[in-house]
Write a structure and sequence with these properties.
CATH topology of the largest domain: Fructose-1,6-Bisphosphatase, Chain A, domain 1
CATH architecture of the largest domain: 2-Layer Sandwich
Radius of gyration: 18 Å
Structural class: alpha+beta
CATH class of the largest domain: Alpha Beta
Strand order of the largest sheet: 2-1-3-4-5-6-7-8
Number of domains: 2
Largest sheet: 8 strands, mixed
Number of strands: 13
Distance between the termini: 60 Å
Strand content: 15-25%
Number of helices: 8
Shape: globular
Length: 272
Amino acid sequence: MPIRSALITVMDRAVRKAGSSLRRDFGEVEQLQVSKKGPADFVSNADRKAERVLFEELSRARPDFGFLMEEEGEQAGSSPDMPRWIVDPLDGTTNFLHGIPHYAISVALEDHGEIVAGMVYQPLTDETFWAEKNKGAWLGERRLRVSGRTDLAQSVIATGIPFHGHGNHDSFSAILAAVMPQVAGVRRFGAAALDLAYVAAGRFDGFWDAGLQPWDIAAGILLVREAGGFVSDFKGGDKMLASGDVVAGNSHIQSRLHKLVAQSLKKPPVIG
């Protein structure tokens, strides 16, 4: 049984309170699908409402900490040396908008440039993935380990597909063309925080994506590492939060997946 620190207890209380709000709003958004106007404005309000709950709960418990939030941006702590919360109140907004029950809240704590605690909470399944530096990764009270598979041909890999107005479609297509023939399957579930949590839990064997925001991946990076996995950017370095590029998995799968990603990006484009 893990011994939860006061920090994890604070995070758990915050995500559960925000999760209750999202669950109620998700029930409403499913009904709004039939309206002509559509639920976009409603979902935007649900997002901001959940973020306010997280901000209030985390601020009450740790008033000196700073914030980096998806909706409200950056807020400095009481001094430059203070840790900051990195908060995504609704990862999987498009799923939420369409009534697809796959979304999450992601909260991480960054201290002097290092992620030291992270939590990804799925309100509909009531699953809490959490980790602290050097204390392991957990799903509730169960210790998490990344997948033990070493063969790409037996592996299921998650990713995110660029959409209208976002991402480099040509680069994604090149990577996908390199990865697809090598693996048992590629999945696109639409919530990067949950993708990384699932890698930590061994549900996915690996994950890659590009152009993500820090709040999408900060908690997930720590989860994977504390579950025994490896995470790098596309260059093999540690600049995931700055670049938004991520390759994750166990040591075998991450290495092979990173090689496929890197090689595909070096190929010249096909002309004509």
